[in-house]
Amino acid sequence: MRGALVLGVLLLLSAAVWCHDASPPGKPALIGCRSPDKETFTCWWTPGSPGGLPTVHRLYYHRAESKDVRECPDYTSGGSNSCYFDKSQTTLWVEYELTVVATNALGNATSNTLRIDVMNVVRPYPPKNVVLQVKQSNDNPYLFIGWQSPLNKTKTYGWVTIKYQLRVRPEKSKEWKIYDTDLQRNFSLHTVDPKVTYEVEVRCALDHSTWSEWSTTASIKIPGSSQKDRLLWVLMLVSLIPLLTAVCALVVKRNSVKQCLLPPVPGPKIIGVDPRLLKSGRAEDVVSALFGNQKLANMKARTEETEEFISVSDSRDWLLPDERLSEKVRSLIIPNSFVFGAKTQSFELEKAADGKENPVLDRSSSRPGDGRTPLSPAPELQSLRASKDAASRSAGQCPAHSYVDIPTPEDCRTPEATSDDYSRVKGVHGEDVLLEEERVPPCPDAQIQPANVASDYSRVAEVNSDTTVLLQNLPVCKERQHHDAGWTVGKKPEPPGTEVSTGSSTQLVGSGYVDSVPNFC
Amino acid sequence: MMLAACSVWLLLVCLVLYSRLKVAASAPTCTNGQAGCHVLSLANLFDRVIQHSARMHGISNDLHSEFELYFLPSKNQIGRVSRNCHTSTILTPNGKENAQRMAREELTEVILKLLVAWGDPLWHFHQSLAHNHEFSNFSSNKSLEMSDMVHELRKGVQKVIEKMKMLGIIGNSLGGLGSSESLLAPVSAEWRLMKDYDLLYCFRRDSSKIQNYLKILKCRIVPEHGC
After folding, report:
1. Between chains, do A157 and B219 touch, taking CB under 8 Å as contact?
2. Is the pTM of this model over 0.90?
3. Which chain B residue shows the shortest CA-CA distance from A115?
4. Which has the minimum average pLDDT: A9-23, A136-150, A292-306, A391-405?
5. Phi and psi dihedrals of A13, rounded to 5?
6. In this complex, do A155 and B94 lie within 8 Å of one another by their Cβ atoms?
């Protein structure tokens, strides 16, 4: 008994549950209708809540003036939950009343009734195939926009007139600019800026219908002023060509150009000395450079040559113009100096080897390339320098501050040509050179010692003998006296092999004046 | 001598006048004798008339939307009585095919009937709007414009009919101005019963019909690209 009751209750419950799952369908709702071409139209609805059972939706309609209810002729062409009315079913300027009924096993549900006049629901679809092109007009770019009608038919028999509208905006802007094109299916926009991307959308309307949706956005980038850019590049290239050819010419003929712009200054060259060997800095190289065999041969030749000129006479023959004299003097002095120089240089070299790296012939000059070497005057070499200077000075050329004969036509003023650093050559006895201590330097300011030619000469007092000339004593500067007296003060020690005499007798060198500071030029 | 001078002067005057006439003749006014010129002017006439009808329909559309906004918040109500426009008695083709199948004369007559039927009602409608202070000046101006346009359009269509008759495109069966009164009489009473909104609704529909019929008529009579 109780069991049967329980069973019955259970059955009822299960039935209730079962019944709860399945129910009559929910009420569908008609959304609306749309006619894209004034000849057909489609209506859509949304189904109501599903009843759990398979539901069928049916659309019924009738025209306003007739009572004839008909069912939808086409449920598929318009998509799901739609009804499509073709040409034969469509009547314009007549009101339709539409209803949708949802039916399932348990019941049915009727939607709201929709009254429409097809002419009032005309709304075309958006235009198709929007095409963007950038074209040129007198070197100015413009945007050409083209599209196609949404209707497939081209012949409308005057029934349909589509008008179009488009909107354009630069990519980053938020505001659209709208243009009406009426019946045209293309449009040219001239107000475009280069290097900007533009977005374009088009829509249409049939006569006075509602506007369609905007078409899909088409975008395009206007290229930069290509014509102008091209012209600029062409001009640049054209202007570069002569430049390039000039550069090429320069490179090819760089040597001659170099010759033209920077004429080579003949470097100092000791005859028989290879400067490259000296530069290397190695002792053996320097020695070989200085004391090459061929040089010795030259030396010998020269010494022979000069044998003739060693004897100094007091004849008028010696009163020669400077050039000839200079030659003679030079020839006289050079080999001697060379010999001397060889000795002294060797000494100097030894000295140099101790202290500095660079040998005597230090090329560091204030005026590069001219071969001048402002050498720190070493006392042991001062005589040599003096003799050289004399020759050069009388030759009318500038004194060289090196131990080589540099025929440089340069200014004779040399700050280094301190007269106090030089002593007169008294005479040559074999390998020894007798120096005259006495000199008449100018009395300049403390540091500046311009090479005053006149003051470097002393007047001949009397000619003693064939080999002696007495000079007048000229006032000597105190400074110089200091220098003279202790010309080793603050200077290097006197070199060996040099005879320093403090006498006033000197050798007759040339004209009435003896160059107290003989400068070689 | 004097005679010669006079004749020369006369000749000059004649020449000047003739040249003037020629210039005047080159202006787009066609004489009756030229057939090509007629066709061109008919097309022009049709274009003007169609443009006019389009404008008229636009205004009626605007007015109707305005009324709908203010006086009828809910659309498509079941309870609404189906409208009976006073022009329902006029048989009109309800589609493109129907309109194309119709005879030219018939179609033209339909257009004319519609235009005639709406002349008076629209005028009275404007009057009621103008006197009623509920409506804005904008609406009142529009209704006046609409009323004027109907009259203008009617005149234009009548001109087109005359031209077509002259060209022999349509027969003389179509009634002239005189028939307008006969058309008007049977429907004159009914429109007074219509409410303003219904009147606007009806006119919007009829103006659309007029516009479309004129377009089809033009394509049939003056064929051109796109027809």
Report:
1. yes
2. no
3. B76
4. A391-405
5. -60, -45
6. no
Q: What is the dihedral of CA A265, A268, A273, A279, to 10 degrees?
A: -90
What ipTM does the predicted assembly reach? 0.75
User: At A86, is the secondary structure helix, strand, or coil?
Assistant: coil
The alpha carbon dihedral of B165, B170, B173, B176 has a sign of: negative
Token couple for A405:
């004969």
Distant-in-sequence, close-in-space partners of B201: CB < 8 Å, separation ≥ 6: B64, B83, B85
Q: How many CA atoms lie within 13 A of B187 on its CB side?
A: 23
CB A389 within 8 A of CB A519: yes
Q: Which of A4, A25, A115 is nearest to A63 (CA)?
A: A115
Residues 6+ apart with CB under 8 A from B102: B93, B110
**Are the CB atoms for A120 and A94 separated by under 8 Å?**
no
Q: Pick from B214, B85, B97: which is nearest to A89 by CA?
A: B97
The HSE-up count of residue A255 (CA atoms within 13 Å, CB side) is 0
Mean pLDDT value across chain A? 70
Strand bridging mode A177-182 / A162-170? antiparallel
pLDDT of the residue at A298: 53
A313, A290 contact by CB (below 8 A): no
Chain B residue numbers with beta carbons less than 8 Å from the beta carbon of A95 are 82
Residues A103, A47 contacting (CB under 8 angstroms): no
pLDDT digits (tens, 9 = 90+) for A317-334: 544 444 454 444 444 444
CB contact under 8 A, B95 and A117: no
Q: In terms of CA atoms, which chain B residue is nearest residue A116?
A: B76
- Per CB distance under 8 Å, which residues of B are interface residues toward A? 54, 57-58, 61, 76, 78, 80, 82, 92, 94-97, 100, 205, 208-209, 211-212, 215-216, 218-219, 226-227
Instruction: Count other C-beta atoms under 10 Å from residue A135's C-beta.
Output: 10
Find, among B63, B85, B65, the residue nearest to B146 by Cα: B63
Q: How far apart are CA A518 and CA A307, in angstroms?
A: 21
> With an 8 Å Cβ cutoff, are B58 and A208 in contact?
yes
Torsion of CA A213, A215, A216, A217, to 10 degrees: -110
Chain B hits for A155, CB-CB cut-off 8 Å, are 226-227
Distance CA A28, CA A378 (A): 124
Give A-chain residues touching B100 at CB under 8 angstroms. 157
Q: Report which residue type is found at A229.
A: D
Cα R_g (chain B), whole angstroms:
24
CA separation for the pair A323, A321 (Å, rounded): 6
